[in-house]
Write a structure and sequence with these properties.
The chain has eight helices and 15 strands. By secondary structure, the protein is an alpha/beta fold. Helix 7 links the parallel strand 11 and strand 12. The longest helix is centred in the C-terminal third of the chain and has 13 residues.
Length: 293
């Protein structure tokens, strides 16, 4: 049995309160979105944070937390001081709980994302077996779903693809299973590189079909397709680099964009690309287009 204390804090105060909980004997401290907000990343490689986060400290049930609770109830950085309380938690098999909530999902007519521990609903479809582990990308978020639906209807046969910000490798693997010849997957998180390689092998892809790199290791090349499901600010900064990574008339797909960020990104990319009408889902936007010859 365990017990927890949850508090609401601003992003700039998370580290201070996390240190306080750990010093008080917390076995773990986790951060979650407190207000159903989009997550913002100020620059490529930075740690993304929500503006307001729920900070949870997990403690052994036998630990006396009265002094800690009193401290937090008077702490100026805690936003929900009046509602702070200690809550007991029942033992759970957390891995099983998470696995039970990850179900197969269809994108377009023929593409499915399936948990690696379940049999695909349609064995004749294009099935991606996925174990996301520590990297982002299961198809459940609108940004990824928008990209998967675009890929499902694209002609990728024998094409070269760059997946910039590969996360779990979901888009790279989808491109490979949909006929792409070679995929270059890029991410600044080594855990994402490991997840992409592991998920690629889980889908029985040849070892040289998808090559994963940290950004500085990506070789000079010109691809037929470039996918970037990241966030608006890195997309702004990478626009001129992306233009050099595509062949003339090569296709680009951008996601991780909020509706209110669309106009500025359109203006940024129209310097190099002929862009299609934006696609929107749940407040998120996908941009696509072709590099001008």
């Amino acid at each position: 049995m365990w017990q927890q204390i949850q508090m609401t804090v601003r992003a700039e105060h998370c580290a201070e309160l996390e240190a306080l909980l750990l010093e008080a004997g917390a076995s773990s401290v986790t951060l979650m979105d407190a207000e159903d907000q989009p997550v913002f990343q100020r620059e490529p490689g930075a740690t993304p944070l929500w503006g307001t986060s729920t900070l949870t400290g997990l403690f052994p049930l036998e630990q006396n937390l009265k002094a800690l609770l009193a401290t937090l109830q008077f702490h100026p950085r805690v936003l929900n001081r009046d509602s702070l309380q200690i809550e007991p938690l029942q033992e759970q098999v957390w891995e099983r709980t998470w696995m039970d909530n990850f179900a197969p999902k269809q994108f377009g007519k023929r593409l499915w994302i399936c948990p690696s521990w379940q049999s695909p609903p349609d064995p004749e479809a294009v099935n991606i077996l996925l174990d996301p582990g520590l990297a982002f990308g299961t198809g459940s978020h609108a940004t990824t779903a928008l990209c998967l639906r675009w890929l499902e209807q694209a002609n990728l046969r024998d094409k070269t693809v760059i997946d910039y910000g590969c996360g779990s490798g979901i888009l790279a693997i989808a491109a490979a299973l949909l006929g792409a010849d070679k995929i270059h997957a890029v991410d600044n998180d080594p855990q994402a590189i490991a997840a992409t390689v592991d998920n690629s092998l889980r889908n029985d892809l040849p070892v040289d079909k998808i090559t994963a790199y940290l950004p500085e290791a990506l070789p000079k090349l010109q691809a037929d397709f470039l996918l970037a499901n990241i966030l608006a600010e890195p997309l702004h900064e990478l626009a001129d680099q992306f233009a050099t990574l595509l062949k003339p008339e090569g296709k680009i797909v951008l996601s991780g964009i909020l509706e209110e960020q669309t106009e500025s990104l359109l203006a940024r990319y129209e310097r190099w690309f002929s862009l299609d009408k934006p696609a929107t889902e749940d407040g998120w936007v996908r941009l696509s287009g072709s590099l001008r010859a």
